[in-house]
Amino acid sequence: MRGTPAELLPWILNGADEGKVYEVTEWRPKRTLSQNAYYWKLVSQIGDKLRMPKPEVHNRLMRMHGRDLDWEICGERVARYFPDTDELEEEMLQTETYHFRPTGKVKNDQRLWVLLKPSHEMDTREMSILVDGAVEEAKQLGIETLTPHELEELRRHEIQKQAQQGD
C-alpha cells in the first residue's frame, strides 16, 4: 500500500491485521527507462571514444560517481576483503554481474572492496547521480550531451508516469 501519512494512518489504525508486522519506507520512484537508455548510450559513446569495453566504462563510472551508491543489505554496507592483485582489479573492471569499488584499506595483502548497487536497483535520484557523472565524462571527451534542463524534463516526465501507474 502506498500513500501519504494522512491516507495511510486510518488504514493502519482500522484496517491493518494486528497479527502482522509492517514496514513503512519512503517511496522513491524507480530509475526511469529514459535515464537508463541515455546512460547506456553515453557508456557506449565513451567506450567507443576510449576504445574501452562497455563493462569497463560502466564499472569505472560506478566507481567514480557512485560513492553514495554502496549497496546496503539490512542497513549494512556490503564489503569484503579480496586479494590485492592487478589480476583481480582487471577482473573487477570487466565484470557485468556485480560492481565493486576498491577502498584504500589493505591488510594482510587483502584489499577491502565495497559492493555497489546495480543500476537496475537504483531509484531516480541515484540514477541521476550516475547519469550526471557519465555526462561529465562525456563532455570532457567532446561527446555531445543533453542539457541539464533536457535531462530534468526527461526524468520528471517519467516520474509522473510512474506515479500515475502506481509503480
Shape: flat
Residue-averaged pLDDT: 84
Tell me the major beta sheet.
3 strands, antiparallel
Low-confidence stretches: none
Distance between the termini: 11 Å
Strands in their spatial order, largest beta sheet: 3-5-4
Number of domains: 1
* Portion in strands: 5-15%
User: What structural class do helix, strand and pairing data support?
Assistant: alpha+beta
The total strand number stands at 5
Helix segment tally: 6
Radius of gyration: 20 Å
* Helix-strand pattern: HHHEEEHEEHH
Helix fraction, binned, reads 40-55%
What's a quick, concise take on this entry?
The chain has 167 residues and is α+β, with helices and mostly antiparallel strands. The protein has one domain.
Features:
single chain; 167 residues; alpha+beta; two-stranded antiparallel sheet
Describe this structure in words.
This protein has 167 residues and is α+β, with helices and mostly antiparallel strands. It has one domain. 50% of the residues lie in helices and 14% in strands. It is built from six helices and five strands. The strands form two sheets. The protein has a three-stranded antiparallel β-sheet. A hairpin with a 2-residue loop joins strand 1 (72-73) and strand 2 (76-77). Helix 2 (33-50) packs across helix 3 and helix 2 (33-50) packs parallel to helix 5. The protein is flat. The mean pLDDT is 84.
